[in-house]
Amino acid sequence: MTLHTPMAMLHATLPAEHARLLQYFNRRVGREAAPDLVQEVFARMFGSGTLDRIDNPPAYLTRIARNLLIDRSRQKRRDCTVFFPFDENRDAESRAEQTWRIEAADLLRLYRQAVRTMPPKTRRVFVMHRLRRMTYKQIAEQVGISIATVEYHMMRALALCRAAVAEQW
């Protein structure tokens, strides 16, 4: 076997090229990643299926090394996702609390509007029970109606509130 065949030249230059590529990657990506990248360069070269057609092995290996760095750079840009630590006490609750407050304000507006549109006696019974915390018996005595009538007005008031909410949502 003569030293002038492409395969013979390649085998003769492998140790020197390994050292040269290791130095090349050490300067560009650091000592930790360099050995893996050198191995990847040789794996790409031997996996290319073009070993018998390589005229200048050092130039071919340099091109593979540069392409590998370009691929690595593109991959880093694609994977450039920034992760922020999730603080459950700050992030999740503040958003949910803010949403809850907005929804609660909307509901309160709907309920007030529904109460304003109730018939006067129904509104009075509803306000006495829900806002003043009076019992049905106390309301019946104060208004001069039966407990069954108080129950009727409360059911009517709650149905009007439910209808107002259902209409909006």
From TrEMBL:
GO terms for molecular function: DNA binding; sigma factor activity. Residues 109-161 form the RNA polymerase sigma factor 70 region 4 type domain. PANTHER family: RNA POLYMERASE ECF-TYPE SIGMA FACTO, RNA POLYMERASE SIGMA FACTOR FECI-RELATED. Belongs to the sigma-70 factor family. ECF subfamily. GO terms for biological process: DNA-templated transcription initiation. Keywords: Sigma factor, Transcription, Transcription regulation. Pfam families: Sigma70_r2, Sigma70_r4_2. Residues 18-78 form the RNA polymerase sigma-70 region domain. It comes from the Bacteria. The keyword NADP does not apply. This is ECF subfamily RNA polymerase sigma-24 factor. The keyword Ion transport does not apply. It comes from Sphingopyxis fribergensis. InterPro entries: RNA_pol_sigma-70-like, RNA_pol_sigma-70_dom, RNA_pol_sigma70_r2, RNA_pol_sigma70_r4_t2, RNA_pol_sigma_r2, RNA_pol_sigma_r3/r4-like, WH-like_DNA-bd_sf. SUPFAM superfamilies: Sigma2 domain of RNA polymerase sigma factors, Sigma3 and sigma4 domains of RNA polymerase sigma factors.
